[in-house]
Amino acid sequence: MAELRSAVARLRRQLAAHRADFRDRGIAEEALATLAGLAAADRPDIPMLRRSLLLVAGAIGSVSALGEGLRQLREAVDLLGPSPKV
């Protein structure tokens, strides 16, 4: 959980420092806030974590300056459990 909290906080800081505006910034900020709340829980809801990660990825995926932070966030979520099989 410490890795998740750290990755969420880092990406939130990077997003706040990113001066360029983009259309889905609000969605990314809301999804990161949800992730922060889930990371603070004793037993996080893994499916909700993954949904929020997908929202963040969709919202900032084309912003290359945030790519490394997004990768670290994905890796932190992956540590909590495997991706569901489709």
TrEMBL record:
Pfam families: DUF5955. InterPro entries: DUF5955. This is DUF5955 family protein.
